[in-house]
Write a structure and sequence with these properties.
This protein has 297 residues and is an alpha/beta fold. The protein has helices at residues 17-28, 53-58, 75-93, 103-110, 121-133, 135-145, 147-152, 158-171, 203-219, 222-228, 244-248, 254-277, 291-296; strands at 5-10, 32-34, 61-62, 95-99, 193-199, 283-285. It is built from 13 helices and six strands. It has a six-stranded parallel β-sheet.
Length: 297
Amino acid sequence: MSRPQLWMLHGPTASGKTALAIALAKAVQAPIVNCDARQLYREMSIGVARPSDEELRAAAHWGIASHSIHEPLTAMSYARWARPLIQDLLAQHGQVIVVGGSGLYARALLYASDALPAADPALRSELEATWQQDPHILKQKLRDLDPVYAAQADLQNSRRVIRALEIMEITGRPYSSQRTQESSAAIPYFDADLHESALWPDMEVLTPRIMTRTQAMFENGLRQEVESLRPFKNLTAMQTVGYREFYEQPNAQDSDLIQLIATHTRQYAKRQCTWIQKQPAVRRLPLGATPKDVFRL
């Protein structure tokens, strides 16, 4: 019996991962498991570029709108949820496609886990309360305690900042010294042949795509979606591009918000590309790649 095949498609936002994943799913007759941290939440749709109904019908999808913003996931809790699912799907189909731009989630899913402590609910609540009062307090604390991690982390992401501080409080050691995610010796978790590839567009090509998609989100009702979620604006899952801009600048015009969100999205895409560059097992694909390009790697 041939070994199961696990296909992982990385790539920055707006690079065409969904389209390639569906084409690959059709080519190998395999289901798709989402590895985008934001598309997991059922309350968020337009602002996270959830696949359309037509795209969801084109191939079997798992992990789209499967969780609630009221019970936010971390990379490790996502891995604990997705691993048994993928094992079952591999047993049924022999092949599975995982797609998403959340690098830390993919790493936690695909490779042996970092030996990091579990969350401390009391400490987590205390840190979250401080973040709500003044995020700069925690950002500066992270810079002081672990300048190495602070220099590479997204300090606008409350989950990253709080988790790092939580781990350091529990262990008494810098968070950067405890992470193994960049290790080239990482051990795959699944008993399957793992194929990792990433769409790799030129930023000059990606930037107008990001702007076009951002404009389309507004045309499709992003403001209405964001306003419907305003009562939950302080939840961890809502501290993300495409939503927090509305809450931070409630009086801004759509034209200004479009520019701001597109800028933040482009910055996020650059961070995604930086992460991909550090992954030795990931092979790059050109924009517009087809399943044949994936198979050739």
